[in-house]
Design a protein that fits this description.
CATH architecture of one domain: Up-down Bundle
CATH superfamily of one domain: MOB kinase activator
Mean pLDDT: 85
Order of helices and strands: EHEHHHEEHHHH
Strand order of the largest sheet: 1-2
Distance between the termini: 36 Å
CATH topology of one domain: Butyryl-CoA Dehydrogenase, subunit A, domain 3
Structural class: mainly alpha
CATH class of one domain: Mainly Alpha
Number of helices: 8
Strand content: under 5%
Low-confidence stretches: 1-19
Radius of gyration: 17 Å
Shape: globular
């Protein structure tokens, strides 16, 4: 495996005021890059159920790692388009509709869940995900370095948390997404994400409850 997690420079000055993390770049020539190209090619075919399947002969951990980085980038970009509408005033709590509210804890720096605004929560969340992706012991980028035994549980936690950003965007900011004409992009990204986590059973059904109706709708269209 080549080095696949180079980081793009920060968008100048945006980090302090906006949650827009640097993009994870998978460099050309690495095995992960080939896997990403495979994923993009099969996505292009329009069959998302097929696109998420593990390519023949590939390592499951590696496939999940490459796609997790890709989803991080996609969600990063999607949330980046609506950050000006997601403020301490507009979103004083991190919610996904009236019935679901999320409190932040990462188990190390913040052990006891804290109630915070959506932009603050998402900043914590995306920073935490980025730290996991940058950790060579969790997401090894060198050829021959094995994935750790706890990789799958870490990947599941990352994806569970990334889902919450989609849930917040859909419930609280979909009107802004529509105004920006980003809804097709958001729907395709989310559908890809959902089919992926369903294929490998990566997120507990209860966690998906805030967007259950949408998930069923996206699934039924594809049968």
């Amino acid at each position: 495996r080549g080095n696949w997690k180079c980081v793009f420079p920060l968008i100048s000055g945006s980090r302090s005021s906006k949650t827009f993390k640097p993009k994870k770049n998978i460099p050309e020539g690495s095995h992960q890059y080939e896997l990403l190209k495979h994923a993009e090619a099969t996505l292009g075919s329009g069959n998302l159920r097929q696109a998420v399947m593990l390519p023949e002969g590939e390592d499951l951990n590696e496939w999940i790692a490459v796609n997790t980085v890709d989803f991080f980038n996609q969600i990063n970009m999607l949330y980046g388009t609506i950050t000006e509408f997601c403020t301490e005033t507009s979103c004083p709590v991190m919610s996904a509709g009236p019935r679901y509210e999320y409190h932040w804890a990462d188990g190390t720096n913040i052990k006891k869940p804290i109630k915070c605004s959506a932009p603050k929560y998402i900043d914590y969340l995306m920073t935490w995900v980025q730290d996991q992706l940058d950790d060579e012991t969790l997401f090894p980028s060198k050829i021959g370095v094995p994935f750790p035994k706890n990789f799958m549980s870490v990947a599941k936690t990352i994806l569970k948390r990334l889902f919450r950003v989609y849930a917040h965007i859909y419930h609280q900011h979909f009107d802004s997404v529509m105004r920006l004409q980003e809804e097709a992009h958001l729907n395709t990204s989310f559908k890809h994400f959902i089919f992926f986590v369903q294929e490998f059973n990566l997120i507990d059904r209860r966690e998906l409850a805030p967007l259950q109706e949408l998930i069923e709708k996206l699934g039924s269209k594809d049968r």
